[in-house]
Structure formats: structure tokens, C-alpha cells
Amino acid sequence: MTHDSANLVAAGDVSGTAVYGADDERVGTIDRVMIDKQSGKVAYAVMNFGGILGIGGDERPVPWNTLTYDTSLGGFRTSITEAQLNQAPEVEQGWESNRDWESRTYENYGVAPYWI
Description:
Blueprint: H1 11-14, E1 18-20, E2 26-35, E3 42-49, E4 58-63, E5 67-70, E6 75-78, H2 82-87, H3 99-109
Parallel strand pairs: 1-6
Antiparallel strand pairs: 1-2, 2-3, 3-4, 5-6
């Protein structure tokens, strides 16, 4: 992702962007973003974490509102902990249209759902 001063970014350019924890340590990478068709709101960043060089890691959708872009890092910053990532509901078939799964995910991260 480029480090210019633009306020908008193409969804495709977010893929591969690093995610850093509060301690400036890299915790993962954004694979893709998920956008609500009806509202147009970005709901999730699907993040890869763990593993080595993207191999053997896990994938979890994290609520978009848990991420903020940090120009000094050239990536997103989050306060999500490793424990929250590990305890989050795992990606399962049809998660994108399962409101119960989404509710449990947002509850796990302690943030308000995008649809409220």
C-alpha cells in the first residue's frame, strides 16, 4: 500500500498490508477486506497471522473498526491481542452470511458490530 496522503485507498491495495500491535510488533497481514453489500461499510479485514512468511498461519476476519492506519508504520495498528485472535470464531463455510457468527466475532473483540 502506498504511503501518500490520500484519504481513500482501493480495496485491492489493502491486501498485503502489515498489521502491528500496540508494541509496534507485526502481528499479521491483511489478506482481503469484506464490504457489506447493502450499506457499503467495510465490515472486516481478513487477517493472516502466525506461521512463517505466510505459510502455516491462521486466518481470521477482524472487525474493520479495530484497525487504524499508521503512516509512520506504513501499516495498520490494532489493539487486538493474540489471545483474542486465537479465541475468535474460526472461519467456517458460510460465515459471510451468518449473523450469529458475526455477533460472536464482534463480541470476542469487544467492539460494536458494523450493522448497528
